[in-house]
Amino acid sequence: MKIPFHIIVLFLIFSLSACATKENHFDPIEPVNRVSDKINDSIDTISLKPAAQGYSAVVPKPIRTSVSNFYNNTAYMNTVLNDFLQGKGAQGSKDFMRFMINSTLGLAGFVDVASSMGFERHQEDFGQTLATWGFSQGAYIVYPLAGPSSVRDTPDFITSIATDPLFWVGWIVTPYVTFPIALLKYIDVRSHLLDASNMRDEVALDPYVFTREAWRQHRDFMIYDGHPPAAAKSSDDNWEEDNW
Q1: Total structural domains in the chain?
Q2: Does residue 134 lie within any of the structural domains?
Q3: DSSP-derived secondary structure letter, 44
Q4: What is the pLDDT of residues 88-109, one digit of tens each?
Q5: Where in the sequence is the domain holding 129, given as residue range(s)?
């Protein structure tokens, strides 16, 4: 599934020293986005954040690492698919091998065997693929529960769900089993971001703007495989209201 709102605080790591630039201000539905942002933040404050704090306090780190490995592996076929869609054939083949190794030798992904064998972990999605194909980012969107996205990144909801084995298992196994597994996924992810989210709340004059610009910078980082053009003004920022 699409990573939820609170994953966005991870992106702060990439932009704590950065300011919002003029080119990054295309946010035509900002009033609506701010409402969604407040709703998401309220839900996090009363539920997900406390659950993540308890999870981190009670569950030993080695077990939490194994749980993270499992969820990373179940979502990895989305990366494999988008490797090939972006024309990264060699990387796609290696990523497929990584998935197969961790799914078998790694005991369904709980153990990251592939990394020790030289199969580096990558992160690709359909939003990055569309950027590679030349599509502009479009308007920034904050979805209730799902969180920060954009016009270009929205279709990844479909590919990430379609390639997630846990989603398809949910059609076969009783919800009493699949719902707790899905909930644990978000709690585990949120637990890794406790320090980063606290830092955002402490240093940001406007957490909404800070999160928006951090998200955009991180997307550029991902699209360019960690090497975005210096001070680049991408075509993503050239949208006008008529485009929206």
Answers
A1: 1
A2: yes
A3: I
A4: 999 999 999 999 999 999 999 9
A5: 5-234
